[in-house]
Fold this sequence. Notes:
- By secondary structure, the chain is of the alpha/beta class.
- The chain contains twelve helices and eleven strands.
- The protein has helices spanning about 20-30, 70-80, 90-95, 100-105, 155-180, 190-200, 200-210, 220-225, 245-255, 270-280, 285-295, 315-320, and strands at about 10-15, 35-40, 60-65, 85, 110-115, 185-190, 225-230, 235-240, 300-305, 320-325, 330.
- The radius of gyration is 24 Å and the shape is elongated.
- It starts with 11 loop residues before the first strand and ends in a 7-residue tail after the last strand.
Amino acid sequence: MTRPSGPLVGLKVLEFAGIGPAPFCGMLLSDLGADVIRIDRKAGGPDYSRYDVTFRGRRSVALDLKNPLAAEACLTLIERADALIEGFRPGVMERLGLGPDMALARNPALVYGRMTGWGQTGVGRRRPATTSTTSPSPAPCTPSAPAERPVQPVNLVGDYGGGSLYLAFGLLAALRHAHATGEGQVIDCAMTDGALSLMAQVYGNLAAGTWRDEREANIVDGGSPFYNPYRCADGKWIAIAAIEPQFYGRLRDKAGLDDPAFDAQMDQARWPELKEKLAAVIATRTRDEWCAIFEGEDACVAPVLSLKEAPQHPYNVQRGAFVEVEGVPQPAPRRASP
């Protein structure tokens, strides 16, 4: 058995099994060395397999939480834990006798992490999570999506970006406080709050008048010609993000954009025209041909890779970004140094 390693070795976490962002947070903590014990349902729980990547790295205990003896067993585990993660709807843990009051009474230094879509308070707290930020641009994996309708950016923004990562961040901040003072606390992590936090720069630009509240009307939401994905001659795509003048200059030089029209980089009135012109140029070569042209150039141009292509990309191979466990390729727990 491989001995645990990482900066969180020695940290004991109790995770009540759920789906989506809570298990992903548990995976992140485990990947960094924490000892995470997952409490699974004794009956009717999920049948985990090697394909359940976000459940990796944890030990599991199956309990019937409606049984008072099982609840007492959980409280005994809580006494020895540094942190707890749960992703039930508000009130569920309290009804099981495992709410924050009961847990902190047993372990005053416990950090109690709660993950929901809308938070523990407010009018939406009973609602299931439907969080997303559909106003900004779609991810490069949906480059042909029309501007007439919002695009669902997978569930990376709400569940994982606004949920798991903020829960992990909150837990670690609270653990630092607990280790310094002996005082635990409750982390109320709402995916809506996290997703809004990710929009901080957009709201700043909106207030400054430099962001239009429309789709494909801004520099980084598909509105500009120099920050967009483009289809190549072979039907594959490249992504361009050449905002700064020096990067835009290299883009023009290597792509042969000597048409004087491209001098008007920041003229928003001409962006639709320039997008059409640039799309026509990119369509003349294959994705691999463009990658060869821009290799080593500071032009902010990269291929849009499929899920199957990404593990074989030289950059990802060099950095050890993927591992294969029981025949399942997956993002590596920790990146190896190049």
